[in-house]
Amino acid sequence: MSSLPSPAPSAVRRRLILLTLCVSLFMAMLDNTVVNTALPTIERKLGAGISDLQWIVDGYSLALSALMLTASTVGDMFGRRRAFVAGLALFAVGSTVCALSRDVNVLISGRVLQGAGAAAFMPGTLSIIRQVYADERERSTAIGIWAGVSGLGLGLGPLVGGPLVDHFGWPSVFWINVPVGMAGVIAGMLLIPESKDRAGRGLDITGQLLAVAGIGAGVYATIEGPVRGWSDPAVTGLYIGAGVVLLLFVLVERRSRTPMLDLDFFRDRIFAGSVLAGLFLYLGMFSVLYFLSLWLQVVLGWSPTGAGLVIMPAMVVVACVTPLAGWLTGRIGGGWPMAAGLVCSAFALYGLTRYGTGASYRHFWWLLPVIGMGMGLTITPITATVLDRVPAARAGMASAVSNTARELGGVLGVAVLGSVLSSRMAERLRERLTAAGVPASERDRLVAATTGGTGRPQAGLGAGARLSHAVNGAFVDGLHLAELSGCAILLAGALLAVALVRGGRGPAPGSRGGKSGELDTSDAHDDTDGRATVAT
């Protein structure tokens, strides 16, 4: 049963609520990319290896993607303000754990807590805006500000993280979340009116547990494969287990009265193609920020601040291109812009393979706007087409499905391409050390130290510049293979976009959806409010 409507907040209070929601959202989106600039420093300070760095990135995204759909239902049923405040508090606790960590495993645990907290409060930001802004024009303006802040958080992550790491150390990228999170908790309790809607809702506990277990097992096996060996019984067993669990997930969702994932959406080829295009984009491209930061700082010797400034042009171009992509989608449909963006991104990754240990900014600067153009051309058509293909009352869940697929693509991208990098790096480093006459026992120890989670071996081993050169060269060899693999993934996504989405304009047959991206604002059905999530 829905809660009774409360009196409309005053104009001043509405602005303060919007400020609270946007600052909290900005913090969560910032955390997607701000940590990348701190990874090389964390590697040195905590003795982290390649697989550890992958888990530091994926711990956050994995929890966020796995819990977001269920978290939105929890907010609907038990109170959206309550879920928002609890999520912010958990995010602040996770940030504190990360900042105080002096062990890699503790840091990864803190990142998982951060992701769980973000999954709890992010879906509520849009639904609360829809609740407090009764006037359609005011609501449209507020949602526009909300969307802009979301993209700004992703774009400013590298720029904010670099100076923080340089001047205050790597824990500072986590400490900044604590006062912001606690201020959001206090403001949320004082300003945001409570709302809930239990009508026809239920928690899909079985589906949620199966999704977390299946995705978690697959990601863990992919990250640990290069460390343990791909034929290791634990790795193969995890892959088999992940496949069985995810098959059970599909069966459970098909039978559930209130599934966390409505599989009927995927009967529409245009909807399915758009969601897959988003997954392939993040699978092939999102991890480039992770790899690029390591390459700039570890191999080329840039400072965290310098690395952040290098990445910024790509994000600026994303912000500039997305309106153009929306205009194109409204006129020719989403398939061709998606395909063009994915091809553009693939070209950028291929271009990066031309540069290695001796690269300078004047060599590769031109590829950074190309990266931004590819992402900008793809993201908006995906969001618009997904929302266009479902009834207006289901737009929130459709947005959540698309958003979760992109987050999952980012998780898998870091895991899969990181494993490709790590495997090739270990192979090439072993060859280089053999050629340098390093004894077999020492050679195996250095390879394990570099790729398996005990840190890079440059310091304290008496190897000097020669070993450092070997490690950096092996890293670049692995990086190039990962980039080529990402290029292939993006081209496959472009083919899917052409095959499945091309020619798809307007709502699906039987859909009551209106204009592309328009959410249902009527009072007849409240399904959208609790399910809508960030669509950057």
Topology, element by element:
Blueprint: H1 11-34, H2 39-46, H3 50-78, H4 80-100, H5 104-132, H6 136-168, H7 172-175, H8 177-191, H9 205-228, H10 233-255, H11 269-299, H12 304-332, H13 335-352, H14 361-364, H15 367-388, H16 395-435, H17 440-451, H18 464-501, H19 527-531
Helix pairs in contact: 1-5, 1-6, 1-8, 3-4, 3-5, 3-9, 3-16, 4-5, 4-8, 5-6, 6-12, 9-10, 9-16, 11-12, 11-13, 11-15, 11-16, 11-18, 12-15, 13-15, 13-18, 15-16, 16-17, 16-18
How would you summarize what this structure contains?
This protein has helices at 11-34, 39-46, 50-78, 80-100, 104-132, 136-168, 172-175, 177-191, 205-228, 233-255, 269-299, 304-332, 335-352, 361-364, 367-388, 395-435, 440-451, 464-501, 527-531. It is mainly α and 536 residues long. Mean pLDDT is 80; it is low at 453-463 and 512-536.
Question: How would you portray this structure in words?
Answer:
By secondary structure, the protein is mostly helical. Helix content is 76%, strand content 0%. The protein is built from 19 helices and no strands. The chain is globular and about 75 Å long. It starts with 10 loop residues before the first helix and ends in a 5-residue tail after the last helix. The model is unreliable at 453-463 and 512-536 (pLDDT under 50).
